[in-house]
Amino acid sequence: MTSQRTLSRLLALHSWAGIVTGLLLCIVCFSGAVVVFKNEIDLWANPSLAQLPRPQQPAPLDTVLQQLLARHPGATVEAIALPDGVNPAYFAFVREAGAPAAQRTKIALRPDTGAVIGPVDSQLGQYLRMLHVFLFFGPRWIVGFLGVAMLVLIGTGIVLHRKILAELFTQRWSRSLRVVLSDLHKSAGIWGLGFHLLIATTGAWLGLAPLFVQGWAYVASAPASQPAEAPPPPAPAQPAPSLDALHAAARQAVPGLQTRYVSLRRWGTGAGEAGFTGGISGHLASSARVEFDGAGRLRQAFDPRTAGFWPLVDALMEPLHFGDFGGLALKWLYFILGMTPAFLSVSGTLIWLDARRQRQRGAGPAARS
Q1: Model-level pTM?
Q2: Rounded to whole angstroms, how far apart are CA atoms 127 and 90?
Q3: Bridge partners, 118 (sequence order)
Q4: What is the pLDDT of residues 313-335, one digit of tens each?
Q5: What does the pLDDT average to over 5-28?
Q6: Buried/exposed code over 126-138 (b: 16+ C-beta within 10 A; e: otherwise)
Q7: Count of H helices and E strands in the chain?
Q8: Is it the case that residue 195 has pLDDT exceeding 60?
């Protein structure tokens, strides 16, 4: 049985962890609840795209690329997003000649002909995702750390509120505001416990796993002092292989591949690379990818189903975190349950402030006596 001293320490840890991270947790959880509708928000913010046809067979990728280069000569096409179940249009991310590497324009194209429509009017859904994943400009490990803090809050909360079944249905509406908030805080935390564990664990993994992987790679590699090599000369331009032929080869390399993005690097040169990334039909994993060089030779094929245990776990984290694998009903469930951590952050802060005010009131008469 947990001693009173241990419970007091856990309560202090629970309270201060919530106070210190409360504002950021509220922002991240609120934006995360909304961002499950990222594609729907982007379509709502660009209503003209909703009127586009949804052909059974979208325009060939080669046609899309030709239309882009014809409209934007000299520009670099860095990625093409294929039509999906929500957005009917092709989207291309284009960097104009002379523009900074970080400055890209998102352009919409018709799905039936590949004709360029023009830059999208709004990227509201993407801005919300940037807020949730990076807090706009921060590194992703900050959000990963918030996932760890959320796990600490969940663990200490479970120990502090051991009478889970009793508190599950306890709501004393006729009591003071602090009691009402406390009951709501506990019941919301218990009802959403499984979901909160899922979101906190996957969020911590997505934010911190790359940091550990990079750190391990740095420690494991033995740096040798070697003279700096001169940068290679620019590769000469050459006819690029067909993107549609490479797409077909990618589907052969990873059976069931459902391509979402095509990434292009230095395409049209001898050093060119093309990558096809997406999910797998009938599987939850969403990080399958196939890469080719500028001559159309297969460089890498990553199939999470056959890559081993940890790569498969990593491939499952993002779908489980964002709930984009079960249709609109699951998105609404994620939205409703995703709002509860934001409520827990706000209610926990209000409960702590009210308790602090009451302690100060009690300390006043005691000091005067």
Answers
A1: 0.83
A2: 19
A3: 108
A4: 999 999 999 998 888 999 999 99
A5: 89
A6: bbbbebbbebeee
A7: 11, 8
A8: yes
